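call fold target=Branched-chain amino acid transport system substrate-binding protein
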Amino acid sequence: MKLLSTIVFAVGMCASVDAFAKTVTVGFISSLSGPISSLGIPYANGAIAGHKAIGKSADADIKLIRLDDASDPATAARNARKLINEDQVDVLMGTSGVPGTMAIAAVANESKVPFIAISPVANVSPATAQWMVSVAQPTELMINAVVDHMKAHGVKTVSYIGFSDAWGDLAYDALKKHAAQVGIELLNDERYSRTDASVTGQILKIRAKKPDAILAGTSGTPAALPYLELKKLGYKGKVYGTHGLINSDFIRVVGKAGDDILAPTGPVTVAEQLPDTNPVKKVALAYREAFQAAFPKGSPDVFSAWSYDAWLLLVSATAEAQKHAEPGTPTYRQAVMDAIFNTHELAGTHGVYNYKRGSPFGTDERARVVVRLLGGKWKLENE
């Protein structure tokens, strides 16, 4: 009986310890279906790779809950509310497009839950910026890189074609602003929907203007349309894109029509081509190993790398917050947000992160390079 009592006591102690084990709960929203699933699936894979590589924050386990927003901003907002109200998440992460990201940001701000965005953000009010940051580079930072490349290579006129949505507006606004600053004339602003099957009319209008260069403000597989049409019509000028092109599905769809596209991207895209002194190189190569461990048959990509960076930021901030509060409480959520805003020189795959209150962005010029697509591979451009 004494032995049995000891066993029962020991089991009871284990159960008690398990009952009070700390868990950080993370809600991750991504577009696993719908028009932007070619981005959403890699985003989700990056979070999975991060979770498998680093499954604890200090002495707390990390629980990852993943939901599909079906490429719909309204669904993204509903998912955010579900994760907050039903799952009591400590942190939100997501999603695959600007509209969905901003929908989640509104819910996070209202509920006072930290939100780490993995895609570019736009028109963030000071109030919203109190509860969100983005690991994605500011659109202006990236577009400025290709505009500077245009200027350095003698481009005097440029035409634009982009999505008829928030991402298309972001890219266009950045191009318009910096082109004017460096003396490049902007000739066209043509748009199309992500679901359109043809852009022949728009490209004919652009070709009639005879621009020195064309920038497409697009992303994912729908981004291939303008480049395919430009190739078909024999355009000979310089062709640029955004960092939304750095995607294996885009390369597959665009095929040979993609040769010589120039685009900005985070250093992770060409990690092995970086000098050893680059602070991103070691982390980027470690991410590739983590991704391959999680997905032996998959290929690391720029979108999953953003999620991996978000995971590194999450682990750092939630560990720091545990010094001040217990997970699962409003106090802890505030402590996590405080820790995020105090992040200093955190090396990721895309850049080195430094955050401060009032701005959702944490990267600088170390977070961008210009690459050229050749034979289905991105090559570091010698600017």
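return ok
The radius of gyration is 22 Å. The chain is about 45% helix and 20% strand.
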